[in-house]
TrEMBL record:
Lineage top rank: taxon: Eukaryota
Pfam families assigned: Peptidase_M24 (PF00557)
Designated name of the protein: Peptidase M24 domain-containing protein
TM region(s), chain numbering: none
Taxon lineage: Eukaryota, Fungi, Dikarya, Ascomycota, Pezizomycotina
């Protein structure tokens, strides 16, 4: 077993890790890490089979879908700076373009709808780029089938009029540009002050990223199932006295064993979990009778996981001894799971984002914990961990469509005592309730 040395030297003072002797040269934390990674690898990591790095034709499809949406909305172009949205359409993040900081010289992708002779609509893409950076922009190897088209400007020119006066607009006067939240304010204002009409993200254009392609669903399934499996593997290796920070570190190393890149951890024991997003310093030690709440995310091929499990460590028997006084914990655990189930059943095409939140909230309120459910039910997820649409009871205008992917994460937080949250990733289907993309729901506090 991982973490168990070959005991042959009786003169060495061994410490114990989960009932097994560990040499002084190997700390409990090292044994914990080895155990977690070994158990994770023992699953075979089959969840990775659904993930494929998006090829060029995937990005062509995305841009063409965007072009069709722009045509429907009567928008002349979608403009975006390097960031999450740019990455979605052209596979370049902000740090890949500017490793130091977002700077004052705009580098902007301009995607226009073009109507073909057969009536179809495709994307026609250009890049506004400083002249001295043009070659570097071409060397980015963005996913295009042909050489990229650039509109360049010199340092002393007006960037915005340079784009406005370029030939890409043809006879269009005062082109309408659509931007999203990643476009910095000074660039939006620059466009608006130099001939363009600027509007915010909405309608069919916003829906393009919300509705996932099959390749996106495959990656989301892999990274979220892989994250849940890492939690399950790590749980088997927990021991009394381990700290929240140590669990976070070992869990991150466990996910890295599958090639995933962890980017956040919320690890809370006992009363720490009464704060949904933490706030303590991570030094709390695990004791019998404490719930463990773990909310964690990782990236795979640029896509995010965001899952949460609440459970007992393996050294707490099922059922737990009466001395632990966990009757309310167990009741709340099931109430929250029932609330999640109600949300899943409400996550259907043409339902509203608000209705999904309300379905879960009613279950928790009926159990007497309405005031202890303090946040929205969930959010969209994709290349960002938090994307629109958002599942809250005020979002009555957002309609669910097949292919939209959401978290469902109800929670109950009893201040200064404990907290429970279950979070899974769901995709809206054409018919019936949503499908779980995160390796199956929690079953009991001992089978998360």
């Amino acid at each position: 077993m991982a973490g168990t040395p070959d005991v042959c030297n009786t003169n060495i003072n061994y410490i114990e890790y989960n009932g097994h002797p560990v040499s002084p040269q190997k700390s409990k934390k090292m044994a914990f890490r080895e155990c977690s990674i070994d158990k994770y690898r023992a699953t075979g990591l089959k969840f990775l089979d659904t993930a494929e790095r998006p090829p060029v034709d995937e990005y062509v499809l995305r841009r063409n879908n965007l072009a069709k949406a722009l045509a429907i909305e009567g928008i002349d172009a979608f403009v975006v700076e390097p960031g999450y949205t740019f990455s979605y359409y052209a596979n370049i993040t902000q740090p890949q373009w500017e490793v130091w900081e977002p700077e004052e010289r705009p580098f902007v992708m301009v995607i226009r709808p073009e109507k073909m002779p057969d009536g179809s609509v495709v994307a026609n893409t250009s890049f506004l780029v400083p002249h001295f950076e043009e070659t570097r922009a071409r060397l980015l190897n963005m996913p295009f089938e042909e050489e990229i088209h650039t509109v360049t400007y010199e340092e002393h020119w007006n960037y915005y009029t340079t784009l406005y006066e370029s030939e890409i607009w043809g006879e269009t006067l005062s082109p309408t540009l659509m931007v999203d939240e990643e476009m910095r304010d000074f660039i939006q204002r620059g466009f608006a002050a130099n001939g363009f009409t600027v509007v915010g993200l909405t309608g069919e254009v916003e829906a393009v990223r919300q509705i996932k392609t099959e390749r996106e669903l495959g990656i989301l399934r892999a990274v979220n199932t892989g994250t849940v499996e890492a939690i399950r593997a790590m749980r088997q290796c927990l021991y009394e006295g381990v700290t929240e920070n140590e669990v976070a570190e070992v869990l991150d190393d466990t996910m890295r064993a599958a090639g995933m890149d962890p980017f956040f951890d919320i690890v809370e024991f006992g009363k720490s979990a009464a704060l949904p997003h933490g706030g303590y310093d991570g030094s709390r030690q695990l004791e019998p009778g404490m719930f463990v709440l773990i909310d964690v995310g990782a990236h795979l091929y640029g896509y995010s996981s965001d899952v949460c499990r609440t459970f007992y460590p393996p050294f707490v028997p099922n059922p737990p001894p009466l001395k632990y006084n966990v009757t309310e914990q167990l009741r709340v655990w099931q109430v929250v799971l029932n609330a999640q189930d109600a949300a899943v059943k409400a996550m259907v095409p043409n339902g509203t984002a608000a209705a999904v939140d309300v379905a879960a909230r009613e279950v928790i309120a009926a159990a007497g914990y309405e005031k202890e459910f303090t946040h929205r039910l969930g959010h969209g997820i994709g290349i960002k961990a938090h994307e629109s649409p958002y599942l809250n009871k005020g979002n009555v205008g957002a309609m669910l469509r097949p292919g939209m992917v959401f978290t469902a994460e109800p929670g109950v937080y009893v201040l200064n005592d404990f907290g429970v949250r279950h979070e899974d990733i769901l995709v809206v289907k054409e018919d019936g309730e949503a499908e779980n993309l995160s390796g199956g729901f929690a079953k009991t506090p001992w089978k998360p």
